[in-house]
Amino acid sequence: MNPTAFLLVSLCCCCCLSAAQEETKTTENEHKECQTSQGSCYPDLCKLLKDFGVMEEKLRTTVEKLGVMETRLKVNENQLEELKNYKRKEVIFSAALGGNGHTGPIDHDTTLIYKVVITNIGSAYNPSTGVFTAPIAGVYYFSFFYHAGGSQTKHIALFKNGQHVASSSDHQSSSDGADNGANAVTLQLEVGDQVFIRLMANTHVWDSVNHTTFSGFLLKQV
């Protein structure tokens, strides 16, 4: 090869290599600048996203806790309402025959009318008729007491809807100046069932200062 031509080719190769190296350096510098730029911005964005994820998880947990609290609140409200209803459904009464003397003897069975109302929560006892009418289905407790002179036969009985349930009685005695008797029962009643006391035919009872009484109250709703 001609020495002059060889020299020209060598110079061209050197120029091309130098240009390539310069371009490579420029690309590396740009890449470093990009990395530097990314290093100053992206970490903040990542931290923001991470914080947002933590906040989202806390919010989800808070919502779940609020749901549990809401459920408990509803349960408490229902229990409170049941307690209020229970108080409104109390049924308690007590009444005395009244007067100052004997009732009877009468030649037929007759319903005793206890006119002196001592307690009547729920207004289930009617002092005009002597009849208790169940306002609520449930189990009730009833008691009845009498006082009477010993010279006459004594016999009173508790009835449910006209059916005899329980009695208290004593025979006539000339040696006994006065007698006392009582009985009590527990009855399951439906709404509208009636309970009352009857003085049986040809017997008597006596009252003064509430000696002869009829009482009852609701034990349990069913």
UniProtKB/TrEMBL annotation:
<dbReference type="InterPro" id="IPR050822">
    <property type="entry name" value="Cerebellin_Synaptic_Org"/>
</dbReference>
<feature type="domain" description="C1q">
    <location>
        <begin position="86"/>
        <end position="222"/>
    </location>
</feature>
<dbReference type="InterPro" id="IPR001073">
    <property type="entry name" value="C1q_dom"/>
</dbReference>
<dbReference type="InterPro" id="IPR008983">
    <property type="entry name" value="Tumour_necrosis_fac-like_dom"/>
</dbReference>
<protein>
    <submittedName>
        <fullName>Cerebellin 6</fullName>
    </submittedName>
</protein>
<feature type="signal peptide">
    <location>
        <begin position="1"/>
        <end position="20"/>
    </location>
</feature>
<dbReference type="GO" id="GO:0005576">
    <property type="term" value="C:extracellular region"/>
</dbReference>
<keyword id="KW-0732">Signal</keyword>
<dbReference type="Pfam" id="PF00386">
    <property type="entry name" value="C1q"/>
</dbReference>
<keyword id="KW-0964">Secreted</keyword>
